[in-house]
Structures are given as C-alpha cells and as structure tokens.
Amino acid sequence: MSDAILSAHNLVKHFHAGGWGAARKVVRAVDDVSFEVAEGETLGVVGESGCGKSTTARLLTHLLAPNSGEVRYRGRVAGTEVPLKTFRRHVQMVFQDSYASLNPRMTMLDAVAFGPTVHGIDRAEARRRAGALLERVGLDPARFGPRYPHEISGGQRQRVNIARALAFDPDVIVLDEAVSALDKSVEAQVLNLLTELRRERNLTYIFISHDLNVVRHISDRVMVMYLGEVVEIGPTRTIYDRPRHPYTGALLAAMPSLDPDRRTLEAPLQGDPPNPIDPPSGCRFHTRCAQAHGPCPLHAPGSIAVGHRHIAACHLNAVPEAAT
Amino acid sequence: MLIFTLRRIAYTIPIMLGVSLVCFALVHISPGDPLVSILPPDASVDLQQQLMAIYGFDRSYPEQFIRWLSRALQGDLGNSIATGRPVTSEVMNAVGNTLILAVTATIIGFTFGGLFGFVAGFFRDSWIDKLASTLAVVGVSVPHYWLGMVLVIVFSVELGWFPATGAGPGGSSQWSWDWDHLRHLVLPAVTMSVIPMGIVARTVRALVADILQQEFVTGLRAKGLLDRGVLAHVIKNAAPTALAVMGLQLGYLLGGSILIETVFSWPGTGFLLGQAIFQRDLPLLQGTILVLAMFFVILNLVVDVVQSALDPRLQRG
Amino acid sequence: MAVAQTDFDTLATADKPQGYWRGVGRRFLRDKVAVAAACVAGGMILMAVFAPWVAPQDPFQGTMIRRLSPIGSEGYPLGADELGRDMLSRLIYGARLSLFMGVTPVLIAFLIGSAIGIAAGYAGGWVNSIIMRVLDVFYAFPSVLLAIAISGALGAGILNGLLSLTVVFIPPIARVAESVTTSVRKLEYIEAAVASGASAFTIVRVHVLGNVLGPIFVYATSLISVSMILAAGLSFLGLGVSPPNPEWGLMLNTLRNAIYVQPWLAALPGVMIFLTSISFNMLSDGLRSAMDIKQ
Hints:
Chain A contains 10 helices and 12 strands. By secondary structure, chain A is α/β, with parallel strands linked by helices. In chain A, β4 (about 70-75) and β5 (about 75) form a beta hairpin. Chain B has helices spanning about 1-30, 45-55, 60-75, 85-120, 125-140, 145-160, 180-215, 215-220, 230-255, 260-265, 270-280, 280-310.
C-alpha cells in the first residue's frame, strides 16, 4: 500500500538467552511481524505482557536493530534509504515509565529543548520552542520549565515526554504503554491531549497498551499480538464486535467491564503464556485455545484475509466462507 | 557444579597469562640496563654482550616472554642476580614464612572481626554496634606499618613482652611452633590481623542484620533473640559469605605483607621483595611478584568454587 | 487548554525547583561526623598550602646538638628528628608531599578510569568484554603488591610513585564507572536520547556524564584514604619520595631506628597519616550517604 507512512516488513528480533553453540537459547521476542500504518491513523497494539509489543515499538523506532526485516518510512527503508537521523526526526516515541524516561539532572525545559539542538537548531530558539510546547501540553513554562523530574507528578512528566516527542515536529509517535502507569483520571486527560494533538498536527500514532478499553477509545485499527506474532489485525469496530481469532475473543471476554464496580484485575486468560524461548509448534496459541483442532499443533496458519483490511492468523478461518 | 568449576578455571587461565605478562613487563619498564647491578662499571662492550646473551636479553620481547614463561611453568624462575641462587627456592622458602604470618593474622582477624560484627549485627544501633563500626573504620584507615611500630614501642620497647624483630632462633629457614618462635609471631600477626578485622566485622554485621530482618527469623525471634534456633540459622546463612571474605583477605595479606614484614624484619616474601628492590635484583622481584600474584589468583578461584558449592545460587553468575 | 487546570495530580510540586546538589549539601551538613572529618581534611590541606607561614622553623635546617630532642623540648614542641630538625615544622611541611602523593594518583585515575569505564559501559558488547577482561588482569594483583611491584621496578622517585599508584587505582575506578554506566544506559531517558538522533558522544556528554560522575567520584574519594596509606608506605620502603624532603612515610622510615631512643617521637608521622586517612574515609562515607548511593 503506497499511502502507508510507516510499515514493518517481516521484522524478527531474537534475544540471546544463554548457552552457546548447539545449546544456544534465544527468546523469539518478535517473529516475522509485518503491518503498516496510514498517515493520520492510530493503530492500537494489544496483547499480554511478554508478547513482544515493546520490542516491536523499539524496532519501529530503530532503538533496536532487527535480526532481519526492515522498517520503511513513506516506503523507504529506514537506516539506508532514509538516514537514521532524519528518520528519528519523523518517528518519535513516548515510553511507559515517565520518570525513567527523563534525565534526573535535567530541567523540563532543557529536556524538551535537547532534541531540536541535536538537529541543528540553536539553543535559544530550541528553548523558546520548548516553552511553547510545554504550554501546549498544559504546563506553564514559567512554573514547570525549571523543574526537575522528581519535583512533578507522573501525569505532568508524561506531558513533558509528549512535548519532547513533539519538539521534533514528527509525523509518527509510537506510544509504548504511555498512559498505563497513570491514575484513571489523569489517564483520561492525557488521552484527550493526545487526541487533540493528533487532530491539530495530523499525527499518526502507534498506541501500545494492555488496556483494551483505552485502545478501543483511541484507535482506528487494532493489532493483536501473541508470543511475538501478529494474530489479528483489523478495524477497531470489527475487531471488538466480531473477532476472528480465538485469542482476541478470549482477551475481549476477559476485558474489565466499564462499570467500575465490576472491574477485575484478573488475567484475560487462564494460565501463563508459554515460554517464548521454546514456543509451541504450529499455531502458537493452540496450547491455550478452546477451539484447537487437527492442524493447529502441526502448522502455522499464516495470515488469512477475513474481511476488508481484516486479517486473522487462525485455521478456523481457512474455510471458504471466510472470503467475504 | 563440575561445569561451573571448569568454566571458572577456563576463565582464570587468560587472567594468569595476563598476570605473567605484567610480571614479565616489570623487568622491561625498569629504566637502565637490567644487568647494571652485576656488571662492573668498567665492563667492556664484549662482556656486556656476552651477559646479555646468557640472560637472553638480546632476543625480541615475544621470544623472551615465551622462553621465560615456559621455564617458569617448569618451576625455573631464573637466578637471583645478587646472590646467584635460584629464585624459585628463595621464593618458596619465604612463602612459607609469609603463609605462617598471613594465616595466623587471618585467623585472629576473622575470629575477632566476626565476633564483633556478629554482636553488632544482633544489637543494631546499640553502643557495641557503634563501637564495632568505629573500629571497622579505624581498621581500614590505620597505616598498618605504623601500627606495627606503635605495637613494637608499647610491647617491646616499653613493656619488653615480645621481641621487636625477626622470626626466632631458627632464623629464616627453620620455623617451629614452640614459644621461642611464637613470641616472635605475636606482634606482626596482631598488626596484620587489623586489616581483615574491620572488613570482616563490617561484612558480618551487614549479613547478620540482613538475615535477622527476614520474615522467617522475625517469627523465630519471638522465642527470644538468643534462642539457639535463631543463632544457628544466622550462623548457617552468614557463613558462606563470611568465609569467602576471609579467603579473599588471606590473599590480600599474602600480597600486602611487605610493609609489615619490613617493620618486623620477618623473613617472608615481603622482606625478600624489599631486598630485591634495593639490590635492583629484577629476576628476584619478578619471580616473587609472579608467585604472590598466582597465589592470589588461585585463592580467588578456590574461594569462588567453594562458595558456590556452599551456595548453589551463585553458580548463575 | 482546559486540560491544564484540571490536572489533579499536583501533589509532588514544591514551591521552588530544587537542584540535586542543594539537597546533597543539606544532608551532608546534618551529618556531624562527616562535617568533622571535612574540617580535619580541610585543615590538613590548608596546613599544606600555608606551610611556610604556619611552620615555626625551617624543615630542612637541622642542629646536631638537638638530635632526637624529646617531645616538649624548649623551642621544639614536638621534638627534633634524627638530624636535629624541628619535628613540628617537618610534620607541617610534610602535609604538602604526603597529600600530593596521596590525592594526585586518585585524581588522575579518576579521569582515566572514568573515561575507560564509561566508554566500556556505554559501548557494551564485545568492546566492553575486552576492556573489562584486561582490567581483570590488574585486579588479580592485591593493590599493595601491584604498587610496590611497579614502583620497585621503576625505582624510587616522586614521579614513579605517582605513576605506580595511578596504575593501581585505574582498574577499580574503571570497574565502578562501567557498572554505573551500564545501569544508566538501560534507562529510558538514554533510549529517548538515542531516539532524538544524537550521536553517542553527545549522549554521553549531555545525558550520561551528569548521572554517573557523582557515584564514581564518591567511590574515588573513598580510595584517597587507601592511597594516602599506600603512598606513605612506598616512601616508608624507600620508594617514592626521597630524603631530605619532608614526607610522613619517609619520616617514619628514617625515624624507625630511633624507636629505642625516642619511641613516641618516631611514631608521630604515622599519627598524621592516620588522621588524614581516617578523615578522608569518613568524609567519603558522609558524601556517599548524602548522595544516597547504595554501596
């Protein structure tokens, strides 16, 4: 698709987990992941912890180099066809831990101004812009500009982190659990801010979260990951109303209710995901799937188109009626 | 366990090679001709050349290193330039005396340091705890060679209880465990024991305090702080780390004994090292340091292996 | 802009932004032992700097008939040494070389060791492995042995003494620098800096240095005490400083033969070494807890 602003092509990332030679063990954190995001769109990414969401985020922003596969920005390969430094100006990231992602010895104004100075903007101008950005994310620059990270709250820090990403004037922002650590009320405010900014600046978001309610609220499309693989990807409405992968179904079934009295912190599925060092054969979900049958443990289902821009990697969809 | 031991040994071999390289380099960083102390000042160029060839100094560095190393592996560390005797026998003689001193000092230091740390850890923030931590700071801050002098002043010069220098009637080569010899050992060993004492006290105090804070022990303590179960539990859990610290300290003392041996004229490796330095006897200097450093490396290896045998969790490192 | 005013979580906001160092200073001043240690160490430094004004006599000028005058002699409050030189003046002047020999190696090793350790920690991977394995070799020597080995091979002299002590202190400092840098490097603000497109050099300069130099420096100050003892120890062995220069270790050496005549006089230089060493040790401990660095 030519209108994709950012796309992942067969990304693979394995981490060495001990052992050498024949005994070498690797964690298959991300295994053959491909997808694309259109300009102005928000792609939600969901999955249990350990499914490779964060690794995917770091591969997309080139903080990690993939073992194979590539990331393309407007169709051009990041790192070769687009120089990394240019790429980084266009694709920014906001991290989960608002405290750890700010230098404890740097004032908020300097933290926001640092990025532009790297790209050749002089210090005074960068600081002026940083002040304006702090203002835009709802922090009075005169009051918050000279503060250090430990002197402000988590919500305020995350606003600073958003301002820091905006300072590059990027097209794409990867938000890795960016609101997950915040209190519900603060989370809502930051989400509203993100929505406003997206409209205002025509931003593209890749919004990673384990909270399905939040993802539904902000995303145009949703991608579901399991053990380093994409199991389903499609428009938000379709995914939430008619999931075509049993794993998505299970996640949604366990989703906490919007009624606060009925919210639970229970894991969406029984049992823990299998060890990613030695993932199950065939479809990786078959060990926990209620509908597993003949072919599931034998071979991987591959990506099957199940609707308009809707793909699910499940053998259940391999019957002809799926091709609507 | 076996795999861990083998891996640990495999890791030690390059270290040993590096250590021997450093020892080899010692001779070559020293200014001037290595033969200067045996050459007569009016030596002819010919004689100089001959001697250079005899000692192998005319070859390239890598070649010299390999020759030196292969001889060292066979136990031949060359001959002392000053006395002409084999370095190996001189060093081995001295190592025995240093070991007597260092082991005695370690035992004294460990006993008292451990006791102090143990009591301090049990009664945290009490006066005994404060005393113990003060002693620990004093122990690491005191120049031990000066402490040796002070002990000599008090116990030899003023009180006349113990002799100030030497290793007893047997001289440097014949040690025996009788009072005539032991009284020579008291002052140097006590001086030396101060070095590990502070460190052992500090370590044991932290260990004990840590163990007592574990929930399991809090339950046990309901029976009383000095209950046998509590004591046994604390000792059992603190012992591996404390013993490891003791082993490492013994290594430091072996290598660091030179200053104390000089003060007390104790005929060990430190004393030998002092001689080697003043007579610019480079083969002796090199050989002594090599032997001491190897002792230290092997001791580290043994401590690691023994400690991980006692506490298998450590094998993951 | 309604978002800004309704931010509920403003609990952590203080009235004035506070720098990190101000907090460290405040905590340090509350620690009485550390302040006392700082006063003693500072006093030693002042004494060294102003020695010509403080010392009552010329430390090099001896009077033969005054040889080994006892402590409390007239005109010689701390006695006179084996060449009849005023002990007090020599102890005061001795602070110069003794402090210089003790502190300089740690400072140089701090610069070099930090550079090596930070480079290793930031680079990671095989660069790190090679650097750390080389350092392991130096670690395989007990520090006293290594210092004596190197200066024994190089021979006596101030410069050789400084050199050997510097070599001794580089590996431990580099090791600490490496471990601190490695832990900082994993934090997300470094990732954010990488994502800004900044070069490794800029990231180290702007984001790493400020966060690692503090802990490395505190560790280095804890070595000053050891360095003082070792430096004086070298001179005590006849390496390092040579006569007739006043230096505490060397004075201890030359007075050693006098312990049967004037025992307590002979021990005086050691008191100075001990005082300096222990005050630097406690100063470093106070600094560590004021900076809240886990050991």
